[in-house]
Amino acid sequence: MIKTMEKTDIKSSVNEIRKDFPILNRKVNGRPLVYFDNAATSQKPSSVINEMRRYFEEYNANVHRVGHALGQEASLAYEQAREKIALFMNAKSSKEIIFTANATESVNLVAWTWGRDNIKENDEIIVSIMEHHSNFICWQQLAKEKKAILKIVDITDSYELDMQQFEQMLSDKTKLVAITSMSNVLGTINPVKKIAELTHKYGAKILVDASQSVVQMKTDVQDFDCDWLVFTGHKICGPTGIGVLYGKYDILKEMPPFMMGGGMITTVSIADSEWEMPPQRFEAGTPRISEAIGLGIAIDYINNLGVDNIRAYEEELTSYMIKQLLEIEGLTIYGPLDMEKRGATIAFSIKGIHPHDLGTLLDELGIAIRIGHHCAMPLHQRLAVDKTMRASLYFYNTFEEIDYFIQSLKKSVKIFQKFL
Amino acid sequence: MIKLQSIDQIQDEIIEEFEEFSDWEEKYSYLIEQGVELPKIDANCKVKDNLVMGCQSQVWLIPDYDKKNQVMLFKADSDSMIVKGLISLLLRMYSEQKPEDILSTELYVFEQIGLKGHLSPSRANGLSAMIRDIKKFSFAFNNNSNN
Lengths: 420, 147
Ligand SMILES: Cc1ncc(COP(=O)(O)O)c(C=O)c1O
Prior knowledge:
The structure holds two protein chains of two kinds.
Chain A: H1 10-19, E1 27-28, E2 31-32, E3 34-35, H2 46-59, H3 69-88, E4 97-100, H4 103-118, E5 124-128, H5 137-146, E6 149-153, H6 163-169, E7 174-180, H7 192-201, E8 205-209, H8 221-224, E9 228-232, E10 243-247, H9 249-254, E11 265-268, E12 273-275, H10 289-305, H11 307-325, E13 331-334, E14 345-350, H12 355-364, E15 367-368, E16 370-372, H13 377-383, E17 388-392, H14 399-417
Helix pairs in contact in A: 2-10, 3-10, 4-5, 11-14
Chain B: H1 7-19, H2 24-36, E1 59-66, E2 71-78, H3 81-94, H4 99-104, H5 109-112, H6 127-146
Antiparallel strand pairs in B: 1-2
Helix pairs in contact in B: 1-3, 2-3, 3-6
The complex binds pyridoxal-5'-phosphate (PLP).
């Protein structure tokens, strides 16, 4: 395991860091794996894998309602994970952290509890055109159910959120703003602190989808002053099957349960039931114990590297990659070119060549990028493209990998261009 | 029209052609070239009804049955060059063949020419979906012509 990082140390220790991720040794089609699909899911360090294994081998038990030693150990580890996450995002208390299955469930939880209770006919919900489906469909359907209005903030020509339009959209009718802090396609960083400030002026609430930004930028829920923030564990070195919903405690307290069953009640009689306080109220049934513990270890790993260090290194990688991509004829990048305004996800297309065709050849060369609409169909409709290619970088990627990627991309393009 | 060669003979012929290529670039260039040479289908055939389900790129497959010769006829197209290449191989093997032969022949060509990965059902190009549809249509025409 690498030791605690000094400032901007990742570049010089990336080969050490890579050793923490066993999968990066893999070969694909006889070539070393180049994993550039990190926006879809990140790889996992040994520390996470080992702790999850250790849980099952040494202290597997159900949590909360078990008096025996194993149960106590498991409960402690589960609650420690919650503490770590609270600290990581600077929540006031770990009671504000709810474990869910993923970001999608976190958004659904808010939509179908708070949303159903509070959104009324003619109320307005504002989302952006760059939302991932998991922060879009819920609000679209809730608006339909309630005869409320869904408003959609556009992007500018430089692929940034149109803040002017957003400000004009806000009014006393606005009840909720649900927005991503970083687009999973464009890479665009949205000014969530500013958005929250404007939103609160109108007494509306704001939910931030931090699924992409959480491992690339500092997340500080008190500084953002957001009412809810969601992210998914598997993009931040954690396992699949675990997500997080942060909510201000006063708001969580007023929300009804999303799912009902064991673990979320104080009393149950034949006639009625009474709910636990948050977070238990929202964690019905046996929770995702091993996954939460794994996520806690992932947070340790990220803290150890330092989010600011990660951001600095990824900015360098991204800028290096973008510069070379732009040299390829017919290539369009969908996203800001200003490094300050973007993360490490780069969506692009090449004129005349089907994205799947390029993806196929790159796969042949051991390179994993993503082809498709990346769960952002409204955005692709706005961009007037069916599908894009998306390369998304992570702190374990290297400049050499980018060189190999660019070289492979050029080679592949040449094969198709012969026939154009 | 009826093909003189059996499906297996064509498979063997394709394998022989691909044996000449030593690297992936030549292999894919050849595959793409085969696709480029595929006869174009009419724009009015590119409709939803003719789309092969389960392909991430668009693939149109139009089956027909030649009653006189009792063979299947296929036309197909795609917006992806690689998929078109794969289609050209499929049509070369399956078009103008008897439905019962299509149904009874095992495919080994893709494995032999190192494109087996394309057969995986989760693969974007949907080669396996195309083969499924070709067999489905052949099954339907086979049953009809037997009745
Ligand atoms: C911005 C954003 N939001 C939400 C999600 C959904 O994450 P999950 O599928 O784990 O719920 C993703 C990941 O695909 C994402 O990139």
